[in-house]
Amino acid sequence: MNRTLRIDWITIVIYFLLVSTGILNIYSSTYSNERINSFDLNSLAFKQFLFFTFSLISGIFILFAPSKFFQKFSSLIYLLSIFLLIGLFAFGDTVYGHKSWYTLFGLSIQPTEIAKLSTNLAIAKLLSEIEIDLKKIKSLIQVFLVILIPVLLTLLQPDFGSALIFLSFTFVLFREGLNPNFLLFLGLSMILALFALIKPFFYISVFLTGFFGCFYFLSKKINKKVSSIPIIIVFILSCVYVFSINHIYEDLLSQRHRDRIDIFLGKETDIMGIGYNLNQSIIAIGSGGISGKGFLQGTQTKGKFVPRQHTDYIFSTIGEEWGFYGTSIIIILFATLILRILFRAELQKNIFGRSYAYGAASLIFMHFFINVGMSIGLVPTIGIPLPFISYGGSSMYTFTILIFIYLNIDANRLNETRI
Amino acid sequence: MTRIYLLKLLTIVISLIFLIKLFGLQVLNKDYDKLSQNNAILEIEDYPERGFIYDRKGRILVSNQPAYDVMIIPENLSPFDTLSFCSLTGIEKKELISNLESARRFSMRLPSVIVNQISKEVYAKLQEQMWKFQGFFIQRKSIRDYRFSFGANVLGYVSEVNNQDLMRDNYYRQGDLIGRQGIEKSYENELRGKKGKKFLQKDRFNRIIGPYKNGKYDIEPVQAKNINLTIDIELQSYGEKLMKNKRGGVVAIEPETGEVLALVTAPSYDPKILVGRQRSDNYKMLANDTVSKPLFDRALLAQYSPGSTLKPLNALIALQEGVINNETQHNCNKGFYYAKNAHMDCNCKYGSKNDLIKSINKSCNTFFSKTYLSLINNSKSTAEGIDNWKKYLESFGLGNYLGYDLPIGRPGLIPNSSFYNDLYKGENWSATNIISNGIGQGEVLATPIQLANYTSAIANKGFYITPHFVKIKDEKKPYNEMPKITTAVDTNNFFDVIDGMYKVVEEGTARIAKINGLKVCGKTGTVENFTIIKGKKTQLTDHSIFIAFAPKENPKIAVAAFIENGYWGSRWAAPISSLMIEKYLNNTITRPRLENRMLNGSLELEYNKPISGENFNINE
User: How confident is the model over A17-75, as pLDDT tens digits?
Assistant: First the structure.
């Protein structure tokens, strides 16, 4: 059978739909009335088109690469990307106070984006090793180190948003046998952190006392042998945790970050201040109505009211110009893409293929969740791009390669099963 | 199993939450649409150019001219060379600093005026150097351009709206111009047109980046109407020149149509001084002149005793009532005793015997007093008599607002029985108490335009058309079709009175008003008047009045002239009226010496007498 026919065509179609949506909306959000020449070679939409073409060519090469290539070279790719991250501190450019970019021949390259891909490869490789067992502490440390190194390097840039993205690998680890308590622990500590920021420490300590007290007595009723010591330790740890969250918020975070968190928590409603971005984004999306204002007709978009609208806030352009129809289609496309990759991942025979695909889906999910959530005010303002759609060469390249490696792995699975 | 489904479930749940949130934002909530409208779209008002004003012969009286204001947005200001700015614009450094300060106090982001209405020359120079002055810009606006230095009282003026205007009419915005006086006020709605709306797309720095949707939602302004006045600017300027250094009013009306040909008040001012940079200073100067009151339109507002010019009217009423006819004669012995110790003086010779025509021509007080007595006593009671008389006068447009199309006016006064009941506080009064009304010297008051109006009613032999200043209001309804208002006196009673008025000019008191080849009818008036100086009622030099129309057959112009303290009617009012009639009908002046005397004559000495604080003689 012809090999090309066995490629996951649905993913490719979704990929093309998302990329073209991106280019159209970048064109719209950077469009200005003065520019008569509609296809300017310097326009960002055209640049994005060039990024896309370049990424696609690389992608096609990857599609036809030998199936074992990535598994073999994943460690090397990972190491290279780590060096690139370290190199930033020496050669990187500082933009908006972040040392996150290299400038090469007029192009800005963001190694953090590449690190997301390489970390995914590295984790897949590591998990596929026979001696790795996530139930063992040693294996856990190994895996966490692989994640933690790029996370720390990213935090040092500092790029809090991108660092947060690496949390998505928790899903891969969970799929591959990580103790669910880790996930529970992560989730609970996030919820607790949230409460710690909203309510004064006093109320939370009262709440925690009540909660653990009830938990202890209920457990005692069910099982008389329950010891009070671990519960007391967890209680004390929780209190320390909440206290330290407050400490970090009040003393360690800069006002800029505090502002962002406050806006998200609804503590401040200063619409011309830091909340401006979010407000303008919501106004843009809301004003799109059901069917939107039409291509190039968005008043918020044309007026450039939403900052960074071609990058982080691209979703607001879609919302304003294409309305609820546009936004729901984009959400359905993303959900379909993620679910499709997840389902196909389960069909993989080898762990490398499965966890790579899982990681790819998790990465896309995390970006999608944070970016769209931020644009509509459900998630705090965290500057990360919307995959395939936001303007940016590094992001476009990374996600294209991410998808095409998945396509390669997936196609090889099909080939193996059929032949 | 959870390991396989967790992320899938999460994807589905998160996507659903997003969809629900977006449904709420985009489909259920309609407020965001309005918000984005406010944010990104600037709604500005599109002003139509204010309408032009033409005279009856199509000459432009008022048009518009560009004016340039130097504006500033304090936020954008960067340090600049104040010295060169001051020398360019010609303002004092002190003024500049205080203007900048108040601009800052007003708003950092909104524009304020720093230098008001710079000249075209300054504009040209400044324009080249604007790059030096960050934050400044020049705003063009349209101001009135008066082509003539005359007719200020008719044209009126415009000024910026005040808070009351804003409260009264929500059409206006701060800074809009509104007609304040004259035609500019009465025809404000026509002259302003109706402003439209323009929607502009802004960016987040509030900069305008172009029309919103190529002007799809813009509302075109309704063009202003141009207005054609009934005023003949040549006659108007001639009248104003004749009235120079005098006080009073001259009104000329075309009797057939009620069109006001000239409305002269003196002293007046040049309308040009109420535009431009000096506007407020000039306005203050005019408003502060409480002695000669240049802003007080005497032609419309000054209520004077009509004096002997009321005699033709009383004659008409008496004829209509049948108390006299063209054969009625009265003896006059330099006047007569109408009551014990009450003598009515007259200029007639001792032993005169006057009929109606002769009495008009000689202005015989005796004849008209006796006629008035018989007129009042013709009714059942004195009260009824006077009320009946008032009704006649009212039919000539006296005693009430005339209803012309300028915003100001006075009703004048025609007393009735209750007026005298109040005046005499319940005591009995009889016809002899009010006999002065017969010669126009009593309580009767009229404005110059009312005088001109009843003159034109006499000229028309029994009707008048409400005087008006605009020729055609709109194409469908020309003013020419305005209703005739008929007088209570029938046409057949007019002939003798008109003959009398003709004789006045031909051989009577106003021979000075005679124009070769033209039959002029007129009536002089000389009105005693008083003022109070240091609490003492003091008589001043008589007012000089004249009413006239010409030609006698098919009259084309009716004039009333009132010159304060001009003494005899024939001294100032008659020559001025006559010159205006000649100017209007013949367009040449055959009496240059008379014209010169009128143009150069001044009554300033007369006006200075009561305020000089010294004793003075009157009627010199």
Answer: 999 999 999 988 877 654 545 556 668 888 899 999 999 999 999 988 887 888 889 99
Answer whether 0.95 is exceeded by the pTM.
Answer: no
Instruction: Judge whether B20 lies within some domain.
Output: no
Residue B280: inside a domain: yes
How far lies A73's CA from each of A65, A125, A198, in Å? 12, 9, 46
Q: How many residues does chain A have?
A: 419
Whether B399 contacts B411, CB under 8 Å:
yes
Residue at a domain's end among B229, B249, B284: B229
pLDDT of A367-411, one tens digit each?
Answer: 999 999 988 888 877 778 999 999 988 999 999 999 999 999 988
Provide the domain limits for residue B191: 43-59+147-229
B168 touches chain A (CB under 8 A): no
Residues B238 and B218 in one domain: no
Whether B204 has its CB under 8 Å from any CB of chain A: the answer is yes
Q: Looking at the domain assignment, is residue B4 inside a domain?
A: no
Same domain flag for B115 and B49: no
Percent of chain B with pLDDT over 70: 93
Neighboring chain B residues of A332 at a CB cutoff of 8 Å = 15
Does residue B33 form part of some domain? no
Closest CB from B4, B18, B37 relative to A331: B18
Between the CA of residue B190 and those of B49, B185, B223, B410, B466, what are the distances in Å?
11, 10, 9, 25, 21
C-alpha to C-alpha distance for B133 and A55, rounded to whole angstroms: 50
Whether residues B40 and A171 touch (CB distance < 8 A) is answered with: no
3-class secondary structure, B550: strand
Q: First-to-last CA distance in chain B?
A: 126
Do B332 and B205 fall within a single domain? no
